[in-house]
Every structure is written in structure tokens, then in C-alpha cells.
Specification:
The protein is an alpha/beta fold and 453 residues long. The chain has four domains: 117 residues, Response regulator (Rossmann fold); 158 residues, Rossmann fold (3-Layer(aba) Sandwich); 79 residues, Helicase, Ruva Protein, domain 3; 48 residues, Orthogonal Bundle (Arc Repressor Mutant, subunit A), CATH 1.10.10. It has 20 helices and 16 strands. The strands form five sheets. The chain has a five-stranded parallel beta sheet, sandwiched between helices. A five-stranded parallel beta sheet has the order 7-10-13-6-14. It has a two-stranded antiparallel ribbon with strand order 8-9. Strand 4, helix 4 and strand 5 form a beta-alpha-beta unit. The chain starts with 10 loop residues before the first strand and ends with a helix. About 7% of the residues have low confidence. The protein binds adenosine-5'-triphosphate. This is Sigma-54 dependent transcriptional regulator. Keywords: ATP-binding, DNA-binding, Nucleotide-binding, Phosphoprotein, Transcription, Transcription regulation. It holds the Pfam family Sigma54_activat.
Length: 453
């Protein structure tokens, strides 16, 4: 006889301590769950079936330990939310649990209320997929993570939960994702959610400067250590000592600087360029890359040991085309931002305009969405954007992939031209402005637009 859906267990509790098992079962039932228990990792794997919506997993198990069990559970069901129970002050296990894909962790002893709040949130996220809205409706957004970020997409919500946890752990984080997916935006959010929020967040773009200048930017220099070093200057690692240092496009870190970064991440020690005094830093490093660092390790252009140092916790940000349910929320947020800046009353989208956005595949991700909305709102007198307002900006899609590539290339062309001038002038903004025939303000805008600030 097969079990009806109502009888089938939907929560798996994995703990070898029978008292805790019993306690959790009673509490789970009180909270409307249908629990099933397992006393070991192997038993958990056997007990897993499609009806299970979430797992509470103890770290210390008798056969395969909690982390291995977690990995195998996630292999079997990659989307399965797992809450890991770890020992008090066991930050290392917590980090490893997050690395292995745990949705969250709680340190023992924990409050039952906290556990069931987390489970309730997981259930809400899964059961109430956010409805994509059209035409002027205020989009219904997913639950807040406590920060400014929300998402209607299940995968992103899980990512946000991991991000929030990782923020508090003070470890190095690697953000991966295509250009324009929001890596810089996420890095700022992690900083804001971290215990370092009141300190500085200092971004450094690795490809923005030639090697010598980048070295001095990161580590500082002593007076006279190279031509133009007229005064001793502290580097970003010193300045961010209490805060967060964001290393953007880390894949472009020149080979000569990789050992120096590795040393500072391992030992927290470094020298200024031309200096002989050992300096210490306590900066938290968040790195981002839009290239496959694994491939760079394989072809020898990125050090493997550095890769593992940076990749303590990896947060992969999906491209916009894989989180289209977030389009209404992102569109509303971006339009709100534009309206605020221009002092306008704001805009809504017609149903056809929303559909046009949803049908597009967004090779340039959120940055491209932002550009499209900037331009569409600049060229209309009306408060409702129509499909026509957007169509020429999205024409690329109708013309197929080559045109989509063209849109992206334009953006990249601007970036390359700008970077070339910026590098040539050694990062001097006034000279860059003169060379490019634009105002200094535009140089700042370009730095911002290309995530180089
Ligand atoms: N969740 C979000 N809500 C609103 N705007 C966002 C969000 N995420 C990103 N953006 C906006 O999209 C643009 C691109 O984001 P960001 O610069 O963080 O991308 P990136 O992945 O760092 O890009 P790159 O790899 O090219 O440096 C930014 O202007 C940012 O403000």
C-alpha cells in the first residue's frame, strides 16, 4: 500500500542521540512537519526520498560524518535544503558545511524556535513561488534576507541565505558569475551584513592598473621605491585592515603578484613595495571572477594554492536568464533608483513590455537590464513603458545570437578603450579624461559603470 502525500514524511532528522531525535520529532510535529528520523549518515541516505523537503543534520554521526553525509545528500538531491547542527564555536565545520552546500547551520545548543523559524522560511520559499507580475503591479518579492537583497528565485534565495551566513563568518569568499550578474553588488551586501559593516569596504579592480601600480595599490610603497613614488603610501591591505577588501576580476591578477597575495592571505603579513618592515593586516578579502578560475589553474596562469585560499566559500551567482522570475523585482528596483536620481515620479511596464523583457536572454545580465531601462526611460514622455520603448533596445534577440554578441561587444569595447587609456595614464583620472576627450565626472561614471571603483 502506498502512502498518501499526507502521510509521507517531509522532514528528515538525522542525529545519533535518541533524546535529541525524540525532542526534534515532537517539536517538528508541533510545527506541522511530518518527520522521519535516521541515526546515522548511511541511514539518512537510505531514508531520503522525493517527499523530503528539508533535512536537519547533526555533524557528529557514528559512520560517515555529517559533512560527508551532507555531500552525498546534496549529490542525490542538489536542491535539498539542509540545516547543519554543529558544535559551539566550531567555525571550521560551519565554513565547511556552507562550502558543501548546507543552506544554513546552527550551533549546539540551539533554540528550537530558531530551527523551526529557518525551516518555516525554507518551506515558504519552496511552496510559495513568487508570482511574476506584469504591468504596473508592485511585484511581490521573496522574503528579505535582512539586507537589501530579495529574490523571487528559489536558487537565488538559497544563495542569499548562504551569503548571509558566510558574511558573519569572516572568511574569504569567492563570488563567481558572468559579467553584470551583481558580484560587486553582492560583495557590498556581504560587507554590510558582516560584523565589519561599520568599517571600510575597499574595492580594487585587478585589471584596472598595470602590475607595478597594482602592487603599490594593494600593498603600498615606500618613498623613492620607484620613479614617481615621492611619498610613502599605505596600500589597500593596510587601509582595509579592519574592513573588507574586494578584489574584483581576480583572474586578472598578474602572475608576479599571486605569491604575494597568497602570503598575505595565509600569514596576514606583507611588505610595502621597497619596504623592509613586515606589516600585518586583518582585512577580510572577498574576490570575484567572471572567468573560470579552475580553467586558469589548469592552464597554469593561476596558482592552485591561491585558488584554494580564495575559494574557502564560493558563491556562484546565476546569470539573469536563469533567474527570470526576478525580472519584475529587479526592474522595479532599478526603475525606482532611476526615478530617485532624476527626481521623476517613476515608471511602470505595460504587459507587453514585461513580456518582451521576459522573452529576452540578457547576455549582459543585470547591468544590461539597467542600461536598457536607463535608455528606455530617457526616451519616453509617458509613465508606462511600452513594448515599443524597449523593442529597439532588445532588437539583438530578434536578430539572433550574433546581434546579441554585438550588444555585449559595444559595452566591452567601451570598457577596453577606457581601460587602455586609464592604464596608459597610470590611473590618473584627469589625464584619462583629457585623452578620451570627456569630463573627469565621466571618468568616474565609467569606473562605476564598469565595476572598477
Ligand atoms: N540585486 C540587484 N538589484 C538591483 N541592481 C542590481 C542588483 N545586482 C546588481 N545590480 C546592478 O547591476 C549592475 C551590475 O552589477 P555588478 O557591477 O555588481 O556586476 P558584476 O558581476 O560585478 O559585473 P563585472 O563582472 O562586470 O564587474 C550594477 O549597476 C548594480 O548596481
Amino acid at each position: 500500500m502506498s502512502l498518501s502525500r499526507e502521510d509521507q514524511a517531509n522532514l528528515l532528522i538525522v542525529d545519533d542521540d535518541e533524546t535529541i531525535q525524540r525532542l526534534l520529532v515532537i517539536a517538528a510535529k508541533d510545527h506541522g512537519w511530518r518527520p522521519r528520523t535516521a541515526g546515522s549518515g548511511m541511514a539518512a541516505l537510505e531514508a531520503l526520498d522525493d517527499g523530503i523537503e528539508a533535512v536537519v543534520l547533526d555533524h557528529g554521526l557514528p559512520d560517515i560524518d555529517g559533512l560527508q553525509t551532507l555531500e552525498r545528500l546534496r549529490q542525490a538531491r542538489p536542491d535539498l535544503p539542509v540545516i547543519m547542527l554543529t558544535g559551539l564555536n566550531d567555525a571550521e565545520t560551519a565554513v565547511r558545511a556552507l562550502r558543501a552546500g548546507a543552506g544554513d547551520y546552527l550551533t549546539k545548543p540551539f533554540e528550537l524556535k530558531r530551527l523551526f523559524d529557518l525551516l518555516r522560511q525554507i518551506r515558504q520559499d519552496r511552496r510559495e513561488p513568487v508570482v511574476a507580475t506584469v504591468a504596473g503591479n508592485v511585484p511581490k518579492l521573496g522574503p528579505s534576507t535582512g539586507g537589501g537583497l530579495r529574490s523571487a528565485n528559489t536558487r537565488v534565495r538559497e544563495l542569499l541565505r548562504r551569503m548571509e551566513k558566510a558574511a558573519s563568518l569572516d572568511t574569504t569568499i569567492l563570488l563567481t558569475g558572468e559579467s553584470g550578474t551583481g558580484k560587486t553588488y553582492f560583495a557590498r551586501e556581504i560587507h554590510r551584513l558582516s560584523p565589519r559593516a561599520a568599517e571600510d569596504f575597499i574595492p580594487v579592480s585587478c585589471p584596472a592598473l598595470p602590475r607595478e601600480l597594482l602592487e603599490s595599490e594593494l600593498f603600498g610603497h615606500e618613498k623613492g621605491s620607484f620613479t614617481g613614488a615621492t611619498a610613502t603610501r599605505a596600500g589597500r591591505f593596510e587601509q582595509a585592515s579592519k574592513g573588507t577588501l574586494f578584489l574584483d576580476e581576480i583572474g586578472d591578477l598578474p602572475a608576479e603578484l599571486q605569491p604575494k597575495l597568497l602570503t598575505v592571505l595565509q600569514d596576514r603579513e606583507f611588505f610595502r613595495v621597497g619596504g623592509n618592515k613586515i606589516l600585518r593586516t586583518n582585512a577580510r578579502v572577498i574576490a570575484a571572477t567572471n572567468v573560470d578560475l579552475h580553467a586558469k589553474v589548469a592552464d597554469g596562469s593561476f596558482r592552485e594554492d591561491l585558488y584554494y585560499r580564495l575559494n574557502i566559500i564560493e558563491l556562484p551567482i546565476p546569470p539573469l536568464r536563469e533567474r527570470k522570475d526576478d525580472l519584475p523585482g529587479l526592474t522595479a528596483a532599478i526603475l525606482g533608483r532611476i526615478a530617485g536620481r532624476r527626481g521623476s515620479a517613476g515608471w511602470t511596464l505595460s504587459p507587453n513590455a514585461s513580456e518582451a523583457l521576459a522573452a529576452y536572454d540578457w547576455p549582459g545580465n543585470i547591468r544590461q537590464l539597467e542600461n536598457v531601462l536607463e535608455r528606455a526611460t530617457a526616451f519616453t514622455e509617458r509613465s508606462e513603458l511600452s513594448e515599443k520603448d524597449l523593442v529597439t533596445l532588445l532588437e539583438a534577440r530578434r536578430d539572433g545570437p550574433s546581434a546579441a554578441a554585438k550588444v555585449r561587444t559595444l559595452h566591452e569595447l567601451e570598457r577596453e578603450t577606457f581601460l587602455e587609456a586609464y592604464r596608459r595614464t597610470g590611473g590618473n583620472k584627469a589625464r584619462t579624461a583629457r585623452e578620451l576627450g570627456v569630463s573627469e565626472r565621466t571618468v568616474y561614471n565609467l569606473l562605476e559603470r564598469h565595476g572598477l571603483k
